[in-house]
Design goal:
With about 200 residues, the chain is mainly α. About 65% of the residues lie in helices and about 0% in strands. The N and C termini lie far apart (about 95 Å).
Length: about 200
């Protein structure tokens, strides 16, 4: 029984995902989404609890903080419900925007910057992987399509030889046609004229 290595697992992973749509999430992408959701939930809770310090508003807007908390937790539902790279990435960025909307003390500015950076990076990664999967799927379909003409400049030596032989056969057929007599065929009523002799 052959032991499976890392290369076998990668090959099996690619084979199993070949039938999926480019927008479908694969591998550990949902797990990364859960990490982003947890990060935003924690920051939303900090927005609700840390309301004192330099730069803090006199009357904190708790409604916005609660909306950001709910939106952050909703990332988990979007991942489980859609498994769509585009929707998950877009929703994660929207949730990050809601989390960072409330005015907070100056000490939380770096935390809010992290709340924006992680979802944006996550959405960019999902978008790039979706584009690569779309290109790979289109390439595999072109290769699998029978009778497809080869791309210009990528013909093999055998194809070039076959094309050259076909051109030669066409040229021989044209030469044979040139030697055949023109005009009506010889019959009782019609006799083709004899070629004129050249006078020297």
């Amino acid at each position: 029984m052959r032991r499976r290595g890392a290369g076998d697992s990668e090959l099996r992973f690619e084979t199993d995902d070949s039938d999926l749509k480019p927008s479908a999430m694969r591998g550990s992408e949902p797990l990364y989404g859960y990490v982003v959701a947890l990060e935003l939930v924690v920051i939303a809770i900090i927005n609700l609890t840390d309301t004192h310090g330099k730069g803090a508003p006199v009357h904190p807007d708790r409604v916005l903080s609660i909306v950001g908390l709910v939106a952050s937790a909703g990332i988990v539902g979007v991942i489980a419900g859609t498994r769509n790279r585009f929707f998950v990435g877009f929703y994660a960025m929207a949730a990050a925007f809601l989390v960072t909307t409330p005015k907070v003390p100056d000490s939380l500015e770096l935390t809010h910057l992290l709340a924006i950076a992680m979802p944006v990076v996550y959405a960019l990664i999902l978008t790039q992987r979706q584009n690569r999967a779309r290109l790979a799927q289109a390439k595999s379909r072109r290769v699998a399509t029978p009778g497809r003409a080869p791309a210009k400049g990528k013909t093999t030596a055998a194809e070039r030889r076959a094309e050259l032989q076909a051109r030669r056969r066409q040229g021989q057929g044209r030469r044979r046609d040139a030697n055949e007599p023109t005009g009506p065929a010889r019959s009782r009523r019609y006799t083709p004229p004899k070629p004129k002799r050249k006078i020297r």
